[in-house]
Amino acid sequence: MFGIRSDLPLRRDTASRFVVWLVMVLVFMASLAVTVNSYIGVLIDDWNRSVTGTLTVQIPIAAAGDKASAILVNKVLDVLARHPAVAKSEAVPRAKITALLGPWLGNSEAISDLPLPALIDVEMATEGTEAVTAVTASIKAAAPEAVIDDHRVWLNRVMSLAQGFGVVALTIMLLVTGALALTIVFATRASLAEFAQVIDILHVVGAKDGYIAAQFARRALVQGIIGGAAGLALYAPALALVAWLASRVDSEVLPDTALPAAHWLTLAALPLAAGLLAMLTAHITVRRALSAKV
Amino acid sequence: MALGRKKAEEISGDAVGLEAVGLHYDDGPDVLKDVSLSIPQRSFHFLTGPSGAGKTSLLSLMYLAKRPTRGNLKLFGENVTQAKRGRLAAIRRHLGVVFQDFRLLDHMSAFENAALPLRIAGVGEAVVQRNVNELLNWVGLEDCKGAYPAQLSGGQKQRVAIARAVVNRPKLILADEPTGNVDDTIAMRLMQLFVELHKLGASVIIATHNESLVARFPFPRLHLDRGSVSILPPLASSAEFDHDDPRG
């Protein structure tokens, strides 16, 4: 392998044949975790971008009637127009509100007669909670009954959920790393036992522990890369399927933003990472086992 | 090579030095009882004694497969009793060991087996090819270099094992019954190889039961009996040896 001579009869090694298969499964799981983690990052960015910098002001129906409501709305619009932290503000047209309610209440003429609260969309010029607080205070001064929603509560909850998934993905990565290392430790120990006599001979003819460890490490590297590539090959169609399913979901909920380059690079690096981890683990395992000998 | 650093000591030191060495396995009885022994460099000894006297154990101490239970073991003047593993590997490269049961690697051809010490030491492939071919020709294995141990007779395996032991031009050759599986002609040829290496500066210790072989060479005998060693004079005189020189 790699054109480098091996002194161990590795083709006869029954003890570690399962390693490639296990690495394949582990890399498949790691790939899934990487994608979940990346996609959550994309989602959070997207939601954040669409939500921060906006406020929704709701002016409840005034008991005094539509006219009083309209006056209040104009008063608030006036305040907002003069506020330095506000970039743009406009009343949501009644037609748009009824359209939003359509799915729940039906599109009948009757809706247009319903008393509805007025909504004002606000785009902030200045970001940050301080500006939001200042704008909120100004609105409240003009119209104490106004309800201001900066979408923070909603966003924070959705973000916690997303971050929860992120933590799960990271945990999967850690577990996969641990499982891979343990797999290599046990497989290497089994090989050491299987090749005990060969290793004794290699020692007698002058091989150092590092030389023998390097042979196991090289084999583990190759197994890790092959298993990793197989896991990735298995993952590609799975990812394509999920991407297709996601593309059918409403784009308001799941933005069809492309996954970042870092995601694809991380996926591509997984087989090599698996190989390097396997190599290092095998090397350490052999060194430790041999150092216990005479 | 790490031994280079100790050259001055090496020249003055014995090939093998045992100081009150004792060896036992687990809680068993002593296999070796306080053996003290000096084997000078460039010497040739037979190691004799009844079966179970501890010949193989004594050799395995010398090729560093075991450590003494007590006492000190020195190789080339260096105390190896407590030496680190990395150091032992460096010292082993100056040893050539022939096992009674050959211990060839089954998955390697005769050539690869014989070449193993050179390749492990990182010797260039051109030198490996030249030296191994030459040596295998010398021991009469020119026709089975590519054969695997399973395809070789006992005598052929023995010659591959000897080739592997000496290919590195070791300073100390330890052989356990190296002529046990070959006919007299081959035995004499192999002995001649050991004698040649001895003349080139190696120390040789050959454990054997073969009284007639011992009787043909003027080399002293380390006689091992019930865990103790005594040095006995050669059975053959030098004059007889010259007369019996296999090349003559």
Keywords for this structure?
heterodimer, A: 294 residues, alpha+beta, 4-stranded antiparallel sheet, 69% helix, B: 248 residues, alpha/beta, 6-stranded mixed sheet, 9 helices, 35% helix, 23% strand, disordered N terminus, disordered C terminus
Describe this protein's structure.
The complex is a heterodimer of chains A (294) and B (248). Chain A contains 9 helices and 4 strands. Chain A is of the alpha+beta class and 294 residues long. Chain A has 2 domains: 177 residues, no CATH class; 85 residues, no CATH class. Chain A has a 4-stranded antiparallel sheet with strand order 2-3-1-4, with helices on one face. With 248 residues, chain B is an alpha/beta fold. Chain B is built from 9 helices and 10 strands. In chain B, the strands form 2 sheets. Chain B has a 6-stranded mixed sheet with strand order 6-7-8-3-9-10, sandwiched between helices. In chain B, β7, α7 and β8 form a beta-alpha-beta unit. The longest helix of chain B is centred in the C-terminal third of the chain and has 16 residues. In chain B, 40% of the residues are buried. Classes of the chains: A alpha+beta (294), B alpha/beta (248). The interface between A and B is medium-sized, with 21 and 25 residues.
